[in-house]
Design goal:
DUF6618; single chain; alpha+beta; 4-stranded antiparallel sheet
Length: 96
Amino acid sequence: MITKLEHNFTKNTKIYFEHNVEINENSYLIIFGHHINGGFIAIPDWNICCEASANSDSSYYNRMKLIDAGMDEITAKEISEYINLWIEVNSQNGGD
């Protein structure tokens, strides 16, 4: 039962990117974004979703979150490094 209804559901949400990445001959659709309580990583075709950080030093944190969500260590490392590279490049270019 909903006890409190927030009138503006999208005020603190944002999709940073949605990219398809090939790792070890597998394809991963990575959706990296921000929800009302923080960041998230979703990989829908692999049934993976977890909290995430958008800080430039968050590769280890994001890798551990992906592993906790059920992803293998090698793929989690590759995806977290890919996200971290995007964060670094985007912050150098004055983006989000």
